[in-house]
Amino acid sequence: MTQPIRALEDQDEPALLRDQFRQLLRYRALLACGVVVGLLGGGWLALSGEDTYTSTGEVSVRSATSDPFAAGASADKGINIGSERQTAVSDAVGTVAVGSLVKHGDAVEVGKLLTGLQVTNPPNTLVLRFSYTARDPEQARARAQALAEAYLEIRRERTENSIDNMVDGYRAQLKPLTEQRDRLAEQETGTVGSDVTSARANLIVAISGLSQKISELRALDTTPGYLNKKPVAPERPTGAGLPLLLGLGGVVGLALGLLLSWVRLVFDPAVRSTRELVRSLGAPLLGTLPRDRAAAGQLLAIGRSGSRLAEEYRAVAFRLAYDPSFAERRRLLVTAPRGDNDMAAAAAVNLAAAFAEMGRDVLLVEADLRTPSLARDLGAATRGGRPRWAAERDERGWPSDSRTNVDVPGSGAFTLIAGRRMDNVPRALTSEPVGRIVAEGGRPGAVVIVLAPPVLSYADAVALIDRVEGVVVVCDPREVHRSDLERIREIIGAAGGSVLGTLLHPGQGRLERRARGKAANRRARNRRTQGQGRDGQDGHGQPDGSDRAGGGRAGDPTETMGLRTLDGGTRYSGNGGSDHSSTAGRR
């Protein structure tokens, strides 16, 4: 195709993020599982956990001062609030609190008591916030208050002990000075001298200074702080409730689902986006087929009014018709990567009908000689006059069968050369008659569409690429792997062909597979009731009539496609009209 293929690196970053997010949404099952697990975990935490109550008290810390009302006095002088917070949760405070709680009948160990305590410090304050969590509201209040009071008691004792130690030190210094002063006083009474008087005066000054310091220490206000907010018994349990836990569980579960989806996306060998498919195959995207549940079990979509699937096939046919590489040779090979070839067959049939609707002389060749099914699925007979170039060939060979004209009411007509089971498939596909059939695409207004088996399952498609050249790959992006697409591109390029584009289909759902299975079972029952031979053929070596639309009983589901099978000699006009004068009596 001449349309340029934009590389992944050429896209802007928001587009790439949107594309990656859409890829993650492909794994809806993982996302749903993650959310469900998160909700279950949140509900379990909310319902299985016991209610807890938290009581909070606030303590304002202050340092010892001689005159708190003096100008320039500071309450935070010498206070390290971080150290005070560590003191509040120490074993010393816990021991004092345990002694107070025992008096009120609450016997608890120090370690267990401190496990429910949390001490915090609001920023830029000298306040310690004591929060205690327990299963009983009154117990939480009593323990929070006991711990706060124990902290103040410990701090008061430590301040008083420091003052006593300093006073004892000053007194130890004062005692020898006092004794020396008394000795000088005795000497002064017996003698007259200026030296003794001067020394005694100096001792008196030193003694006065030490006595003043002792007096100042004794006058210090040793209040360690105040209980600004007394703990009260909480009325409601603390912690997240059921709605909040469910919400948090849903968010965590969604994050878990996204993580699992990302891991699945990283290790997923399938094509993750249409842009990656285009880059791997080296060909543009012709179209994406919508899911049409009304067409479940039916092969032909064109001819049904109001079908979105038919309109998509028409759009693909017009896009191919105006492509220079296809318009030059008008030969098209339709195949799938591997596995089921049903969607490729549906694409080949509907593209043939769309080209016939455009007024082209369309020849559809079923080159699947291993599991041929078009004649059966379309309800078209494979009997009729043989082409002139096949007059000398064995009737049991391929493509010796007569061409079957398939009329699509209201759309047009195309010619079908149905496949047959062959023992030597490569020889049949590379034979001269096949070359003549494919060469008919060179006639003005003619289009040859060849349906080949999956290119990675058999080499049949490779044997036809050098004659057809243009290839359309029909695949399900959820099932094909990137390595498969790259291999298909290499195989087709090495065989001398080119990929015209890719046609994506949503894959067969459960309803479609069930409908196709029921139709196959009904056809098998019809063949058994008709009493045909073991090989399912009549006396002329042709497939029996049970594979045709009119070969079964009345009400056979294969007749619901609205197709009319005419003799191979019937002449059709390019616009879908037909000359029925020679076959009016047979229909």
Automatic annotation (TrEMBL):
Ranges annotated as biased composition (Basic residues): 513-528
Record field: compositional bias (Polar residues): 578-587
Biased composition (Basic and acidic residues): 389-398
Keywords recorded for this protein, A-Z: Membrane, Transmembrane, Transmembrane helix
Disordered, as annotated region: 385-404, 502-587
Membrane-traversing stretches: 27-47
Keyword Transmembrane helix tagged: yes
Coiled coil start-end: none
UniProt xrefs under PANTHER family: FERRIC ENTEROBACTIN TRANSPORT PROTEIN FEPE (PTHR32309:SF13), TYROSINE-PROTEIN KINASE (PTHR32309)
The protein's name in its UniProt record: Lipopolysaccharide biosynthesis protein
